[in-house]
């Protein structure tokens, strides 16, 4: 069943009931200030870093769920209600939430009063703006009271959640007119503070949580709202909040509007305070002056919409399939931009406290957004490379504010180095900018030890060359892409002692998946070497790739599919020899998309095995059979119940690898079949099963062995977004950026029909028309550019040329 519908014309998903299976959220913010907002107004805000600069509190896994948020309470006589339904949950006469691109709009009504709330983060300010419009649709005058409510976080979200003996004594606020200043810890060591303000005279305020809610009460029954009056409480320690009270009279048919601004202010160090503990409010007032009126809000909102319109116009498709068009043109690219901003740091599944920015994650995400914001992609590559160590390995995660590696997680994930090559290659192919390769980049953010980025890539490449196991396959380290496949952990076998194997002592675990990565990205490294004129290094790289290719065929092939790995005792993982976990998805997809086994006829066998053994109606499972007991020699992968996460769940992230692999061997029907199974627009009708948002991808869907087969988890922040966009845009629709120009070679299902594409590539706009008179899945009969035939599939890049009119005939 559905809980809403797509409004493609307005690029919105319209939610028609607040009672969705899970909170369905949106992300607000494009630069440094971000908010998460659910369809019932839950969520939180932060500046740059969800751990270190959190403005408002959110309580994960709380009951009832989705607490806290930024709430507006409307008191109409004895009736109290919220435009977003929560937290009071009064039955509404009407309700609608429109999640748009960078904004959300709520329109609800109760007892002939309509409330409309538009919430967004402006392009060029560190604040969230909420415009409330109240309309009296009755024939009588209405007297209302409106109460705002946010609960401040004491900046460091981790410390805020546990260091109560200190934090209960640090809360500090100031109220000036209609502006509430959150200046907790400002006197100590900070040069920033937060504000919550409204552009109207207020009848009262509260800054003490207990004064507003009442003792032993929650946000669902605030005492101040029940009584109809705030208490003008001034927080000192304990739990600081911000609440405004507005008393409003509406004539029949009248509408009144109010603008609430939640903002972050950072003063230069020399302006930290006017006197001890007294904040400099100049920048705060300047910010509020920019949102005084509805006209100001409308201008800022128009700027936001214009930004997204221009950004999303860089790749558009027009086909006979509206679901493909809406995902490609709107939601998939939008989600790619959210993963650019957040990596895996802040969602309704990631608390913002632990992970920060992922090395592997951010490199993969780049594949999906580099065409949209190449300049910022360049900055991101430098940030990522700066966390690398001199041996080519890297911190697995880093904090977005400090850009320092996360020492709690450390390194040892041996796929990480190759993803840096993948991201850099994608950037150079997209932009033609080779100057990034000569940029000086530090190791471990130590500027005294810096080398050109190209040297970082060489060390990434050589890390794999220098870390191979007994089968000449790459060492897996702590894990590869599958974080739960921990094959060098403590193991006990008959006649063998309990021990941990390291790279210099005895047999060590190897990854066939990393081997497939090495074949693909080793070739891309060689191409970058050629661009830089280093033909000798390119030749060396290709020799190493050939050695790895042969090692995969020799010891990575199991007869009908690729082996997943070798454990610390050189026992196969993901083999018919195994009792459980006989086949894994990762090497089948990645080895074939890298071209391994194609000419030998093995690729088709591997993909047929995927269809036979891993496929379900909800997507391709990560492994089968599921592990029914804990295998200590395999690590965390077998710690999950069968069908969940890495133990035979459906990872939407690696389904695109198999779909891409199918395009490599020309099977468009099968590639598109896989694409559809995890594509939100195609599974909107089963939202009661899937549960997560029907407009964005989730990381995982419960597999066939799970009790709740088909239920999704971990939406929004997932490499699924980038890889699915790569799959559909570069392989199914077939427009792939190369160093010399755009390659056009679609692989579509029979019956897909003709389609048109607009693709911005470097300074050129490519207007591409693909016709398929023979209804083939793959194959190019001819390509013309501006009416002239082109040999092959690559449209040569011409520097300075602004428009390319391209006709592609499949056949």
From TrEMBL:
Domain Glycosyl hydrolase 94 supersandwich: 11-292
Positions of the Glycosyl hydrolase 94 catalytic domain: 307-734
Keywords: Glycosyltransferase, Transferase
Gene3D superfamilies membership: 1.50.10.10, Glycoside hydrolase, family 65, N-terminal domain, Maltose phosphorylase, domain 3, mpn423 like domain
Pfam families: GH94_b-supersand, Glyco_hydro_94
The keyword Glycosyltransferase belongs to this UniProt entry's keyword annotation: yes
Protein name (database record): Glycosyl transferase
């Amino acid at each position: 069943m559905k809980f809403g519908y797509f409004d493609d014309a307005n690029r919105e998903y319209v939610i028609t009931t607040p009672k969705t299976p899970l909170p369905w959220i949106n992300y607000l913010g494009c630069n440094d200030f971000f908010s998460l907002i659910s369809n019932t107004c839950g969520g939180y805000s932060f500046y740059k870093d969800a751990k270190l600069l959190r403005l408002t509190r959110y309580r994960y896994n709380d009951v009832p769920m989705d607490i806290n948020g930024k709430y507006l309470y409307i008191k109409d006589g004895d009736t109290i209600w919220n435009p977003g339904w929560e937290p009071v949950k009064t039955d509404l006469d009407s309700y609608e939430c429109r999640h748009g691109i960078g904004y959300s709009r709520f329109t609800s009504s109760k007892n002939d009063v309509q409330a409309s709330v538009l919430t967004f983060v402006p392009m060029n300010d560190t604040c969230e703006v909420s415009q409330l419009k109240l309309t009296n649709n009755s024939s009588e005058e209405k007297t209302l009271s409106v109460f705002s409510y946010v609960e401040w976080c004491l900046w460091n979200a981790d410390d805020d959640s546990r260091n109560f003996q200190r934090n209960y004594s640090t809360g500090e606020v100031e109220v000036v007119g209609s502006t509430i200043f959150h200046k907790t810890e400002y006197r100590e060591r900070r040069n920033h503070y937060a504000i919550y303000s409204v552009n109207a005279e207020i009848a009262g305020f509260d800054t003490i949580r207990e004064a507003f809610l009442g003792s032993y009460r929650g946000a669902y029954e605030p005492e101040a709202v029940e009584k109809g009056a705030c208490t003008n409480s001034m927080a000192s320690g304990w739990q600081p909040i911000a609440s405004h009270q507005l008393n409003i009279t509406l004539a029949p048919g009248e509408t009144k509007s109010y603008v609430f601004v939640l903002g972050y202010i950072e003063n230069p160090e020399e302006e930290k305070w006017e006197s001890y503990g007294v904040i400099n409010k100049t920048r705060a007032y300047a910010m509020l002056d920019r949102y005084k009126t509805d006209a100001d809000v409308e201008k800022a909102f128009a700027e936001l919409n214009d930004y997204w319109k221009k950004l999303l116009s860089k790749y558009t498709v027009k086909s006979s399939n509206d679901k493909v068009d809406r995902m490609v043109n709107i939601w998939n690219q939008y989600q790619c931009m959210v993963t650019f901003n957040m990596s895996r740091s802040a969602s309704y599944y990631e608390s913002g406290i632990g992970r920060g920015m992922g090395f592997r994650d951010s490199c993969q995400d780049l594949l999906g957004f580099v065409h949209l914001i190449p300049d910022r992609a360049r900055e991101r590559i430098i940030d990522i490379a700066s966390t690398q160590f001199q041996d080519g390995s890297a911190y697995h995660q880093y904090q977005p504010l400090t850009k320092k590696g996360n020492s709690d997680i450390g390194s040892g994930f041996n796929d990480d180095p190759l993803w840096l090559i993948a991201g850099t290659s994608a950037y150079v192919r997209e932009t033609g900018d080779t100057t990034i390769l000569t940029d000086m980049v530090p190791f471990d953010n130590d500027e005294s030890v810096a080398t050109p980025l190209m040297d970082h890539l060489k060390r990434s490449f050589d890390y794999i060359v220098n870390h191979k196991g007994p089968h000449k396959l790459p060492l897996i380290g702590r894990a590869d892409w599958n974080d739960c496949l921990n094959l060098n952990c403590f193991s006990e076998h008959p006649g063998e002692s309990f021990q941990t194997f390291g790279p210099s002592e005895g047999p060590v675990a190897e990854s066939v998946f990393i081997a497939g990565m090495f074949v693909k990205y080793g070739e891309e490294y060689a191409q970058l070497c050629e661009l830089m004129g280093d033909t000798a290094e390119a030749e060396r790289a290709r020799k190493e790739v050939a050695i790895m290719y042969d090692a995969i065929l020799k010891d990575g092939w199991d007869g009908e599919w690729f082996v997943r790995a070798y454990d610390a005792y050189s026992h196969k993982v993901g083999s018919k020899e195994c009792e459980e976990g006989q086949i894994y998805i990762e090497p089948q997809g990645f080895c074939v998309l890298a071209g391994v086994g194609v000419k030998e006829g093995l690729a088709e066998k591997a993909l047929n095995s995927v269809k036979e053994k891993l496929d379900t109606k909800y997507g391709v499972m990560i492994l089968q059979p599921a592990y029914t007991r804990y295998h200590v020699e395999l690590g965390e992968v077998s710690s999950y119940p069968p069908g969940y996460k890495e133990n035979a769940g459906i990872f939407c992230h690696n389904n695109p690898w198999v779909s891409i692999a199918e395009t490599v061997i020309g099977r468009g029907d099968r590639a598109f079949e896989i694409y559809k199974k995890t594509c939100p627009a195609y599974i909107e009708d089963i939202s009661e099963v899937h549960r997560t948002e029907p407009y964005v991808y989730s990381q995982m869907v419960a597999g066939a062995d799970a009790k709740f087969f088909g239920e999704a988890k971990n939406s929004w922040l997932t490499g699924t977004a980038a890889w699915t966009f790569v799959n559909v845009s570069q392989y199914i629709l077939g427009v792939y950026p190369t160093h010399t120009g755009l390659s056009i070679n679609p692989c579509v299902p029979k019956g897909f029909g003709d389609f048109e594409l607009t693709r911005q590539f470097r300074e050129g706009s490519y207007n591409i028309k693909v016709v398929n008179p023979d209804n083939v899945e793959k194959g190019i009969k001819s390509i013309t550019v501006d009416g002239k035939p082109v040999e092959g599939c690559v449209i040569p890049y011409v520097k300075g040329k602004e428009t390319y009119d391209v006709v592609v005939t499949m056949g």
